[in-house]
Every structure is written in C-alpha cells, then in structure tokens.
Design brief:
This protein has helices at residues 2-12, 47-50, 214-232, and strands at 21-22, 56-59, 63-67, 95-99, 103-112, 117-129, 135-143, 150-158, 167-171, 175-177, 181-190, 195-208. It is mostly beta strands and 233 residues long. A hairpin with a 6-residue loop joins β7 and β8. The protein is built from three helices and twelve strands.
C-alpha cells in the first residue's frame, strides 16, 4: 500500500501547464504618425517629444515613426532628400521606429512578471543607407526592475553589416530569469548622415516556471508520509 501511495504521488506530481506570452507593451511601435511636413522623408520627427506608448525615451539623438509602406515618408516620397527608390515596409503592423539624426537614443520598459520563468526574445532590425557611418542597435534584458539588475541578455548589432532595405530577424536562445521583474533597454546609435536604422516587432515571449497543481502537491505529501512510515518500519 505504501509503495502504491508513493508511486501515485510521483506520477501525479506534474506541473500545471503554462504557455508563453509576449509581455512587451506596444511591441510593434504602432503609434499614430504625424509626418514632418518640412522633411517628410524622416517621418514623425516630433515622436521624441510626443513619446511612444509603453516606452520610456532618453538620449540626445532623434528618432521618428515610420508609417504604412514607407520608411518615414508618405507614398512616393524619397528615403531622404536626394534619393528615391524602393521603400521599406513595416515588419509588422502599420509603423516602426527609426533613427533620424546623429546621436544615441534609448528606449526602455519595465515589465512585472509572475516570478521566475524563462523568455524567448526576438526583434527585427532594418536599415536604409547610402553613406558611411555607424548604425548599431544594442538590446539588453535585466533580471529586475531597473538596469542595475543582473544582465541576462546584451547584444549589440552593427546594422551596417546587414542587408540594406530589408529586415533581419534577431533571436535569442531561451533564457531563464530568477526575479519577479524584467527590464528591457534598446539603444541605437546613428552616426550615418545618409542612413536610418529601424526596429520593429520587438517580442519577449515569457513563460512562468511551472507550478505544481494542488492535487499533485497533496499526493506528494502522501508520498512523503509513506517514506516516513517505511523508515520507521
């Protein structure tokens, strides 16, 4: 009987099922775009002042929101003054975020999650450039509510090294976290006078650590009792 109890406890001690969910707010950067009428090729250059839903913005550089089937410009407009041709579609949704001038910009987001678990990270990077300079995107994830927490992911990508006028998808291996919060930072640096860096579809699929079902917990208790009785015998 004791063996049966123990066997049942071990067999039934399965964790409740959990599924991954994207915990990033506004992962597609789908805010309303107000195109700069003076220089429409740069998109919504007032976005820095207006902010972007779900994200905290800091830095000395400028950024813009690009809409529809364009890279920061209405249909038929050039990429930037003096250039025309194929424009970059949004990787997902209607808009994406892009650099618009020399400098550095950081987007951050604090995410409250239900305790320990794991996450899979992916994002799309794109560029349009006909000049020389630096276009880099640094993505970091911290195991806590601020960037002072332990670093779980830290990757800097040289966008200039990727294909032009297209999206490149960057993915991470599954990463475990121990804290109850996550903090995400995206920093892009643009020193390319004739280019733009773009980010879209920023997804952080989080899976909480499995939690034993109540019935399983009770059976584990019975299993422990069976072991105690066996030792006494």
């Amino acid at each position: 009987m004791k063996k049966i109890l123990l066997s049942a406890a071990v067999t039934a001690a399965t964790a409740s099922s959990v599924s991954a969910a994207n915990v990033i707010v506004n992962s597609n950067f789908d805010d309303t775009v107000v195109v700069d009428s003076a220089n429409p090729a740069w998109g919504d250059t007032a976005a820095f002042a207006n902010g972007i839903t779900g994200w905290t913005i800091s830095g000395a550089g400028a950024y813009g929101m690009a809409a529809g089937d364009t890279f920061g410009a209405p249909d038929g407009a050039p990429y930037f003054v003096g250039n025309t041709g194929t424009q970059l579609l949004a990787a997902s949704g209607d808009t994406f975020i892009s650099s618009t001038a020399n400098g550095s910009v950081t987007l951050s987001q604090s995410i409250a999650v239900a305790g320990a678990g794991s996450f899979d990270l992916s994002y799309d990077l794109g560029q349009i450039t006909f000049g020389t300079g630096i276009l880099t995107a640094q993505v970091q994830v911290f195991d806590g509510a601020t960037n002072a927490a332990a670093s779980l992911y830290n990757v800097t990508t040289d966008i200039d090294a990727l294909a032009n006028i297209t999206w490149d998808n960057i993915t991470s291996s599954t990463i475990a976290n121990t804290g109850s919060d996550l903090f995400v930072e995206i920093t892009f640096v643009d020193t390319n006078a004739n280019g733009q860096l773009a980010i879209d579809t920023f997804s952080l699929d989080y899976t909480a650590a499995p939690i034993p079902e109540p019935s399983s917990t009770a059976l584990l208790g019975l299993g422990g009792l069976a072991l105690i009785l066996r030792r006494r015998k």
